[in-house]
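Appendix B. One record, verbatim.
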Amino acid sequence: MIKNVHGNTVDHLGEAIVAGRYGVGASIPPEPLLCLELGVSRTVVREAVKSLIAKGLMTTGPKVGARVLSEEHWNWFDPDVIAWQSKAGLTAEFLRDLQDLRRVVEPAAMRLAAERATAQDIAEVEQAFAGMKRAVEKGGDYVTHDLRFHQGLLRACRNRMLVQMSKVLGALLRTSFEISVMRQDGPRNSLPLHREVLDAVIAHDPDRAEKAIRVLIDGARKDIEDVLASCRDLPSLSLPARLLKIA
């Protein structure tokens, strides 16, 4: 997606903060310097700072100006923050936190989906699964269909808060999926695990759905651990989704 001047300025400053170029408690460069460096107006810089404050990366106060906050204040459900962290380098701690979050949210969500999913919900998830299967068999964008599969199941919970969470979890889930497709035969091996989750929801069997998603999440965690142990470069979410290729 092409961003406007405001978005590019937010990205520039956000990436710098997440990458540690401005230390905790430090001030960003003064407005005139940023205007000159980025070729933007003071209004654009000020609006960008407001956006970063809303994302938890900065704070302002009388006589101290804008200061960088430590990462425990950052909004880790903000897709921009996730993308900046990905560009700066995914850490083992970040990936552990992601897997912990999935283990807390998704099993309970699958129970609700198994109880409440409508025919339309199931049809949308079936379409996403078909896209995953097609990517495995013929090559293509597996990650985007995988993301739609999980977000569709979260929407099937018919819970407004979980529906909102399905949106904010998008960048977090994509992180996991991008790493999984780096594993040889990772998508092919996980396909039947996804099918089991969907079949359990179709059968309206909450216990089976919870068990199936736990197996799937544990498999993703092993994939991440194996990729980390291999010292391979981790994916960047600033790039398009990785495509599967058929030899």
